[in-house]
Write a structure and sequence with these properties.
Elements lengths: L4 H13 L4 H7 L9 H8 L14 H13 L5 H19 L4 H4 L7 H18 L1
Helix pairs in contact: 1-2, 1-7, 2-3, 2-4, 2-7, 4-5, 4-7, 5-7
Length: 130
């Protein structure tokens, strides 16, 4: 990995300030570990904001995490990839108390930026440990 955790977090924070959605921020914060066109990543993650097309379903930070794992773990057997995705989602859910956007955005909850930064931190640590 080229980026430190601090650089990755700063990048995600800056991307959010530019108006990118949660999924896009997470995916683009990991552009150093994926051999794909960043513009394509931005477009692919575009529909996942506010819980998949603003439906309130699974948080965009988690769909971004899933996209990164799928690209980074290219060639890994599907059962192993699915297990890692479930583990990543469970870690986020344990930290945040939910995984669906509608539940994460309730009164007294963390703002989206904090959820993005938590997801980036969890994913960075997961990839660093591998």
């Amino acid at each position: 990995m080229k980026y430190t955790l601090e650089e990755r977090v700063a990048k995600a924070r800056d991307l959010r300030a530019q108006g990118y959605n949660c999924s896009q921020c997470v995916v683009m914060a990991f552009d150093d570990v994926m051999d794909v066109d960043v513009n394509m990543l931005v477009r692919a993650a575009g529909g996942f904001g506010t819980g998949i097309g603003a439906s309130g379903d699974i948080c965009g930070a988690l769909t971004g995490t899933t996209m990164v794992l799928g690209l980074v773990r290219e060639g890994v057997a599907r059962p192993a990839l699915y297990r890692e995705v479930r583990e990543a989602i469970s870690a986020f859910e344990e930290l945040e108390g939910a995984r669906d956007c509608r539940d994460l955005k309730g009164a007294g909850r963390k703002p989206c930026l904090d959820l993005i930064l938590d997801a980036v931190t969890l994913l960075h640590n997961r990839l660093a440990d591998a």
